[in-house]
Amino acid sequence: MIERPRRLRSTAAVRRLVRETHLAPSQLVLPMFVAEGISEPRPITSMPGVVQHSREHARRAYAEAVELGLGGVMLFGVPEHKDAVGSGALDPEGILNLAIADARAEVGDDLLVMSDLCLDEFTDHGHCGVLDAQGRVDNDATVEIYGRMGVAQAQAGAHVVGPSGMMDGQVEVIRRELDAVGHQDVVILAYAAKYASAFYGPFREAVDSSLQGDRRTYQQDPGNRRESLRETLLDLEQGADIVMVKPAMSYLDIVADVRLAVDVPVAAYQVSGEYAMIEAAAANGWIDRDRAIDESLLSIRRAGADIVLTYWAAEVARRLTR
Ligand code: PBG
């Protein structure tokens, strides 16, 4: 026998030598929820181990993220009061903008402070934009608000803004508005290929959202593959610096397609439902939790993601640096 592939699997040392894909803390980004009006962290039932942070409690997590060498934190705000137009998103005293400022004060330039740029955490109807007279999400009116939201986040200190609303033309308007006020260096991490997914379920609890209806008129249909290239190329034409695929595990074909199609960094978001599935199976003793987590992250990297957003970022980084 000439070919014996098992030869390169025979010891841990040789497996380590020939491993093609690696995880490093610098590639991991930790999504965090910062809630207004709480003083103690509040557990999120459907995401065991993840909490809504108070501003003060979050500061410790930012410092820890620096110590662990994470790539960044992606901040989500949970406001106490929501309204039809998501006013809290533009208010410099709004919870997300305050959290961004806290994070910058804590970490300076040692960690990338990223912020979700979308209205759904701030609207009482839970949609990612404002509604027109017929109750439909008004693309162009929403995009104008996103432009102002991007400026508010940059002024609060965000290094990276992450438009996640899937409105047409959003990247172009945000880039224009940022540049107009001198924020040429703020990076746009575009949620370029984002699907209307059931795997965002636990996120609704995480941001206290009671979505009326669904997001199928703006997020992509799970049956579509080519459409992701169209969305990604449009975002690049409009000035996206990094493109993201979301969710991750059920969309590894999309991650691989996008990786081949572009020469900018590619990110993938391992979303709340992906987290919850593994935690739930592990809690039942049905799978080996740590191995399943590492394997899931490795698969996302192997498919082509340079950067992974994951709720396990700190835990995995701790394990990697041990
Ligand atoms: C939109 C946004 C969502 C998530 C991240 N950004 C919700 C949605 O699009 O419905 C979901 C993340 C997750 O499920 O972990 N602001």
Offer a quick outline of the entry.
With 322 residues, this protein is α/β, with parallel strands linked by helices. Helices cover 39% and strands 16% of the residues.
What do you see in this structure?
The chain has a single domain, classed as Alpha-Beta Barrel (TIM Barrel). Helices cover 39% and strands 16% of the residues. It has 11 helices and 10 strands. The protein has an 8-stranded parallel barrel, surrounded by 8 helices. Strand 2 and strand 3 (51-53) form a beta hairpin. The N and C termini lie far apart (41 Å). Residues 116, 118, 120, 128, 164, 200, 203, 215, 271-272 line the site of ligand PBG.
List keywords for this structure.
TIM Barrel, alpha/beta, binds ligand PBG, 322 residues
